[in-house]
Amino acid sequence: MTVHFVGAGPGAPDLITVRGLRLLQSAQVVMYAGALVPEELLAEVPADARKIDTQHLDLAEIVGVFTEAHAAGQDVVRLHSGDLSLYSAVAEQVRRLEDLGIDYDLCPGVPAYAAASAALGVELTVPEVNQSVVLTRLSRQASKMPPRETLANLGSAGALIVLHLATHLVDDVVAELRPNYADDCPAAVVFQASQPDQLILRGTLGDIAQQVKDAGLKRSAVILVGRSLAAAGFRDSHLYSCDRVREA
Fold it and tell me: What is the pLDDT of residues 190-207, one digit of tens each?
């Protein structure tokens, strides 16, 4: 058997990958976070498959399900929201599967920051404006950030900053980014990107915190800060340039 970790995407059920959907449709056991995975995706699960909501399970209990399925020779789809590469808690599950000698693979999903970028209608990397994107969060109640990964350090180059899991700490975000970005730097917050209740806030580093408070946002939102969010008059990319030498 194999444990297939599948990124379900940012929320819209049709943003799961074709590969992820096929795995879901053939699964014998499906484990999912009930509060984060769309019900429409669960409707794709075979009628005779075992479905397990993991939102109230701890890691040991989740691994216990893996072990039971392995003993029964049943393939498992472990459905995570967003993409597996960011803040998904996949690493600790994979570590235990390797210790147990259980096969696994990872199927990527559309990450929340990509859905937020699409909702804003912007490219995050604009020629000669921003060519780097920093994906990060703040160190508060969850696991600590490495000592050097502060917003002050990460923002020193002026890269486009994307913050996950930080909406409730928006005042801290502004305070830590202000020295490197200034109050007039474009900023945006996208709540529930791609979902029916999606909400977009646009502004600057100087006013985005108040907008977040006025909207009552405390979770499920991505904060973006950087000049490319409102870039204008920038040069065209080299990719399609008329001056680019192309091979026949």
Answer: 999 999 999 999 999 999
